[in-house]
Amino acid sequence: MIYFDNAATAGKRPPEVGRAMLHALEDISANPGRSAHRLSLEAARLVAGAREALAGLIHAPDSSHVIMTKNATEAINLVLFGSLRKGDRVLAGLLEHNAVMRPLRHLERSRGVIVEDLPGTADRPVDLDRLKERLGAGRDPVRLVAITAVSNVTGEIMPVSEVAALCERAGVSVLVDGAQGAGVVDLDVGRDPIDALALTGHKGLLGPAGTGALYVRDPEMIAPLLHGGTGSSSAFEEQPSTVPDRYEAGTLNIPGIAGLRAGIEYVMGGGIDRPRRIHGELLSALWTALRGLPGVRLFGPGAPESQIAIASFTVEGRETDEIARDLDRAGVLCRAGLQCAPRAHRTLGTFASGGTLRFSLSCLNTRDEIDEAIGHLRGILRR
Amino acid sequence: MILFDSIHHVVAAEKVLKERGVWIDLVPVPRVLSADCGMAIAFHPADLDLVLSHLCEAPLRWGEIHRPEGDGYGKVPTR
After folding, report:
1. CA-CA distance, A55 to A294, in Å (whole number)?
2. Domain-by-domain residue ranges, chain B?
3. For residues B38 and A234, what is the distance between their CA atoms, to the nearest angstrom?
4. What is the spatial distance between Cα A176 and Cα A215, in angstroms, rounded to a whole number?
5. pLDDT at residue B79 in the model
6. Which fold has domain A15-267?
7. A190-228, pLDDT tens digit by residue?
8. Is CATH 1.10.1060.10 correct for A271-382?
9. Which residues of B touch A33 (CB under 8 A)?
10. Model confidence pTM above 0.90
11. Which of A88, A185, A350, B68 has its CA 20 to 30 A from that of A235?
């Protein structure tokens, strides 16, 4: 079986991830911060270690500003619901996932938040000159820019550093959806003035599903999404103000967090350059092979410096869902359709035709798998 | 004994102080000091300045500092 659906969730994980989860489940089954016994303390050390690993991954100077969530979607909701008020204006990137767009559309209706398109086109999803102009315009001031680090549809890497710099200059907050970027591209909140960065554990970081995090530069910026027990400030019925407790009501996913830490340590063992290089090599091989097939139309820049190992494509005269079904029968697992990003497909012009076929690879995929998958695809397209 | 508002800061402080060779002990927060269910860091009173100087170097937040006095504890003014 060849798994090319890693943008949905990682298909393979290093054995260290499962081992760390089992160890947490069997040997450290206690609740951090709730009790004063040794296992509770050990669980707290485990969580703190994972928080340090996440802070190291994104170069966050203070790991207490890294909030554990169940995924990037929760992290994004925390920022949007916790900070936006009536009349606040948000610029949303043209390739945003529904993890950003659905909360924004809900807030449009329920709170009167105003959502605008971030200036750009399909070929250049972020037009920095026009963005600078928009942010500097005297009218209709922007409160927040929401942008993905990497498109889940095309794999295109967005100019996050440049966007964050423009936003800072204009006094505008920036939220980065790092779901597809974490563990593949360099996300650096120490270098870039990013106000909030949402991460998920189960994609490029090769951790388990049900894990994620939010980095927030200024915790005063957001109100908690959940209220409840934290183990701290127990005498009070109000949510504590201390980070990270303020945003982590309820018991954390300790086995998941243990697995996430192991995944980060595996992926980042040789620094971000290693997964970046592997993605570049896989993308080049994939792109070259797909371009050689008749009727294939690829979306995205296709260059390793501006795209991770994702190929989103259509085939002239063929339905992508039928191709995906035939590939599944041949043992190649991929995803057809809108990939939860109708906005991105509207931008690319593929919405009306039902989206694209997406091959999304991880740093654990191989050139041989690409060759085999392309062989199957070639055979299917001949029929 | 130094108290914290969050177990995150307890274990982060533990790491910093142990790495710098300061003798510490993690102990349950005495009920007379706080109703919290968590841990505090105990250290030798003579190390107070050393402990504070190390903690100030790290992105950590801590609360009150107490020392044993008679049958109970007395708050140590630090800031």
Report:
1. 46
2. 7-75
3. 9
4. 10
5. 57
6. Aspartate Aminotransferase; domain 2 (3.40.640)
7. 999 999 999 999 999 999 999 999 999 999 989 999 999
8. no
9. 6-8, 37-38
10. yes
11. B68
